[in-house]
Amino acid sequence: MAAPAKSREKDPVNIVHQNAIHAETIMKEQRSQKLYTKFSINPYKKLHVLTDKPMSGNTHEQAEEDHSFLKSIHGARLEPTKKYTHPHTEAQEIGWISTPLVVSDRNDRRLHFPRQNSDITKYMDAAWRLKEQTQNLG
């Protein structure tokens, strides 16, 4: 009966084996990692420029502008119809030609229906505004 009790006890931790396992894990991780040394700003994200401190003394110096970078920034913010000559996705096809087919004439009663208020709608509009004002105060 004493033999099962010995098998239940844990063996002491071997530090050399733990260190070898750790070193092998690090080597496997380093095989799949790449070191990036070139960084650039994403042209598709808004750029927030902060001004210099007022008393820094560098207020008169102007930095050189990179025209190709500015062109890519401004080009990324354009709408798709100005960027591309034709739609790239099916969703873009729906609204690609956004110019109206018929010129709208506001004086033509057949196509233009302006909002009209009757006495009842004017009364209910005033009552609704009064109700909102009393709710906001209370």
UniProtKB/TrEMBL annotation:
Cell location: Cell projection, Cilium; Cytoplasm, Cytoskeleton
Protein name: Cilia- and flagella-associated protein 144
Stated family: Belongs to the CFAP144 family.
A Pfam family matched in the record: FAM183
PANTHER family linked to this entry: PROTEIN FAM183B (PTHR33865:SF3)
Record's GO cellular component terms: ciliary base; cytoskeleton
Keywords: Cell projection, Cilium, Cytoplasm, Cytoskeleton, Flagellum
